[in-house]
Structures are given as structure tokens and as C-alpha cells.
Amino acid sequence: MRRVVGLFVVVQAVWLLALSSAASATSTPTATSGAVAILSSPPASVQLHALVSTTNIQGFFEQETTLSAAQPVDTDTPGLVNNVTQLVPTTIASGTCVDSYLLQWDPGGLPFPQTAQADGSVTFDQQILGVEALDASLDGSDALGSPSTSYPTGLPAVERGMELIGATHTNRSGNPDTFTLSASLKKLTVHMDTGAYFDQVRVLVGCGGPPANAPEVSTALVLPLSAAFLLGAFVAWRRIRPSLERR
């Protein structure tokens, strides 16, 4: 009987912990500005001209994962970047929980010499741990992408990265792409410029709770449900206590 009571108490404790975890949320974009628009779900493909918009820089949540190895990033430092010399390469430590987001500007491929520019920003409720902006960095971090999305991994001809000054490719317009990390590390602002190809940037954000696909429980329900389970444990104990004392 004591084992039954012990098991009951353990079950209640596990349930209370689950409720507490479910009440929090994963990292979330709290605001966007300009041309940035966040999709409700990952697209089937972000191959060249597979996800086209002539008005929006399209962004989406890719996945949440705990890194099994240190993850190199192009930079994690606040400030404006329009030149590769302004990047501050670093790594995110193994064991870190990260939420990955992709931003893309793909107006569909324009005939020479036309170009198209778009500007916007996205703000998160958690800090940005790193930005992947160059071709090789995007290729090297596609494992953090959405499992249901097709990526142009290892296809140099598509020029998927940001065309910074000193990067492998340059824009038709002669002007570089730029991005800015805010001092708080919660806001990324981008200027994207493309002609025949597209621009992508990956943002790695610190996790704010359980995986994005975990069931959410309203905070307002946690206390009443917790109280109900504790009351159940107390009632069960009161019912079996006399039989235990008679032994």
C-alpha cells in the first residue's frame, strides 16, 4: 500500500513539472517591420525561386534542437554588417538549445540589369545567439533547418547568402546586402538586394521553453490543476492511513 501511495505522489510530481514546462513558450517573434513577414508553417522548399514574393522577405520557424556539437556562426556581435571584415565568427556551445529561423528574399529572378531591394526587421523574445549569412555558413547549418523543407545545400550557383563587401558574390546594383544586430541581441534588421537569384539568412535564437510542437497549457490552468492533484493525493492518503496505522 505504501508503494501505491509513493507511486501516486511521484505521478503527481511529474504531472506538475509537465504543467510548469508547458506553460512557458518557445522563442517567438514578437514584432516585425518593413517587408518581413513570418509564415505560419515551414514551406515545402526554399530552393531557388520555389518560394517567391515580390513584396515580402519571408521568414519561418525551422526547428528547435539541442546542439550535439558546437555550432559555428558568422557573428553574434551587435552592430551593422555590410563587409565580411565586420563579421565576428564564433561558436554556440554544444548542449545549447536553439530555435532556428530562416529569412528569405526571392522576387523570382529578374532579367538583367534589373534588381529588387527589400528592408525589414524581426524582433524575438529571446536573445539571438548567432547569425548565418554567408553561402558556406548556410550550407553548414542546414541540418538545423526544417525537416520538411528542401534546401539548396551545396549549390554555389544559386548565390543564397548575403552579398556583403568581400563575399564570394556581389550584387548587380553594386551595393552590398546588410544586416544589423541590436544591442539587446533580440532584433535583426536586414537590407536584401538581388537580381537573378535570392538572399537567405539564418537566425539562431535561444530557446524560451519546450519544443515548439509541445502542447501549450494556459498559465491560468496550472494552479487550479496543481491544487486538484495535490488535493487528490491528500484525500488518498487520508483514506488509507487508518489501515496503515492498524498494522
What does this structure look like?
- This protein has helices at residues 2-22, 135-140, 219-245; strands at 29-34, 36-38, 57-66, 71-73, 79-81, 90-92, 97-105, 116-124, 128-132, 178-181, 187-194, 199-206.
- It has 247 residues and is an alpha+beta fold.
- The protein has two domains: 2-20 and 217-245; 26-206, no CATH class.
- Strands 1-8-11-10-5 form a five-stranded antiparallel sheet, with no helix packed on it.
- A hairpin with a 5-residue loop joins strand 10 and strand 11.
- Helix 1 runs antiparallel to helix 3.
- Mean pLDDT is 84; it is low at 1-24 and 210-223.
Portion in beta strands: 25-35%
- Helix-strand category: alpha+beta
Main pleated sheet: 5 strands, antiparallel
Mean pLDDT: 84
Strand order of the largest sheet: 1-8-11-10-5
H-E string: HEEEEEEEEEHEEEH
How many beta-strand runs?
12
Question: What characteristic shape results from the CA principal axes?
Answer: globular
Number of H/I helices: 3
Helicity level, as a percent range? 10-25%
